[in-house]
Amino acid sequence: MTAAVSTLEIRNLHVSVETEEGPREILRGVDLTVRKGETHAIMGPNGSGKSTLSYSIAGHPKYTVTDGSITLDGEDVLAMGVDARARAGIFLAMQYPVEIPGVSVSNFLRSSATAVRGEAPKLRTWVKEVKASMEALEMDPAFAERGVNEGFSGGEKKRHEILQMALLKPKIAVLDETDSGLDVDALRIVSGGIEAVRAKGETGILLITHYTRILRYIKPEFVHVMAAGRIVDEGGPELAAVLEDSGYDRYVKGDGAAAPAGAGAVS
Amino acid sequence: MVVIDATGRPPMASGAVPRPVRSRNPLDHGVPTGREEAWRFTPLRRLRGLLAGPDADGKVSVTVSAPAGVAVEQLDAADPRIGRVLTPADRVAAFAMARAGGATAVTIPAEAALAEPVIVHLHGESPRTAAGAAAGVAYGHLSIEVGPFASATVVLDHTGSATYAGNVEVYVGHGASLTFVSLQDWDAGAVHVGAHAYSIGRDAKLRSFTVTLGGDLVRLNPTVEYRGPGGDAELNGVFFTDAGQHQEHRLLVTHTPRSCRSRVTYKGALRGDAAHSVWIGDVLIEADAVDTDTYELNRNLVLTDGARADSVPNLEILTGEIVGAGHASATGRFDDEALFYLQSRGIPPAEARRLVVHGFFAEVIDRIQVTEVRDRIMATVSGRLGETPAGDSTEAAAGAGAVVGAGAGPAGA
Q1: Can you give the pLDDT at residue B186?
Q2: What ipTM was estimated for this complex?
Q3: Residue A119 belongs to a domain with what CATH number?
Q4: Which end of chain A is more exposed for a tag (fewer CB within 10 A), N or C?
Q5: Does A69 touch chain B (CB under 8 A)?
């Protein structure tokens, strides 16, 4: 790791998706700065654009950036392909990790570590590294020989995502609803894995969540509330406590920024 | 599809699964026009006259390496052991039988447990014309018998170039177990038409792998019959059809005795202009074949525009008292979400595609327990995928046009 402060800067980001009725704008000018070592939570109701933001950072082809910029340490992230973004240090833990039949977890992890680190990790240290990370996440070693996400339970998928984050050591990690679908035990284990990465202070974490539950385990320094494609409120951890009590009603009703009908599909 | 009658009357055949004429006499088989069900997908002109049974003017050499105890013999044309399993169902197979001038016979004795595979190298030595086409016609016949309660692995390895009509008949004796691999790793320009007939003894098990990678045109016709209850046939297949190649696999599994099992799993990848694969999976469950358990599956992964995969499963069931009978067919493109997932972990697009294709084939190829063969197939597939221009983007692959197939759905789903 270099001593430089890694900074992800999102400025005036506008993002559209193609629908049957033509393009529809989902993000309407998002501004956000995440630095190495910081933990940000983005909270908001369904349809507010949280997942769109995370996919746009990772470069999913479904989302079209129509205005604004994303930079990482001044480099234009939007000009990079999906794989180049990952190699530059951006990681997205997905809400719904995809099955890749026949590709073993061990083969996949090694391929991605080789790509991100720029050289194949030394086999002996690599095996130890993977083993230790899997143990920390209470994953069965046999897991490594299964197909990527193939037949994984919800909890296994999320642990596998956090395992990848631990191994790839990103500068910026976007965790898209990593807490969703987890029972209490799995939430504790997954949160422990996130906390371990955070404790190293080398990764800026953007925790996207609908619920405040995960914030009992991971305390963000910054909380942002997203509604109708914009950041509508910001604050410290105390804001999460307010949301826990009062929910999102005041953000979606108040200023006419209520999500358009059907927006639930783009949560 | 299903004709079931509980009254005891003879069942009515729906005809979903065709019953071809079976005869060793080539003249008993009509000359195909290309409109017949059995020939409608095959580009007849590219068969280089095999339908007319021209005299052999080329050569496919046969070399057998076998562990001690395995008998390898040359049978002359009149030997009664020829044709015990295979009665030709089309002109090419009948001509092959008539013109092969005998057969190479491999016999694995009863109760033998072979530690090493029997390898049969079939190498096409026909001169190639300037245009790259295999000029020489050759015929061949192999007869393989596994004695009762023996266990063995037999690998046919087709290489080189030829215009080859080759029959293979395999008998798996009672209680025996055979792993059988037929690898079509021909040079570009080879033409190979083959009838592969398997007969499964009582309580015998066949696990076969048909792997077609090379050649200009390959048309194989694996058939399975059972000689007693308890037979189990697994027919696995892999093909990689590149630009201009025609690869056709027409399977027929006939369940006659009771309590037999069949599993058909074929996976194909296609790439490039005029790449054409054909998979026909016919399963016939006859009236006395109660307690039958069968399932067949074909999945095709279309990697680029311009390729065409035809996939037709047919199931005809003449008794209702079965364990299960089903089929599935799906032809699809790369799963874009899988490619995105891999790329989001830093893996470049070309390597992401290679991983997905490897994974797609692994389900079948990993079952081949002959390490050298398995590694060679994977290396060939990797090499072929490596030929993809490194710079081409996911978008180019994802945006390619429509594909024709019997089923449409995400491959590997």
Answers
A1: 95
A2: 0.93
A3: 3.40.50.300
A4: N
A5: no
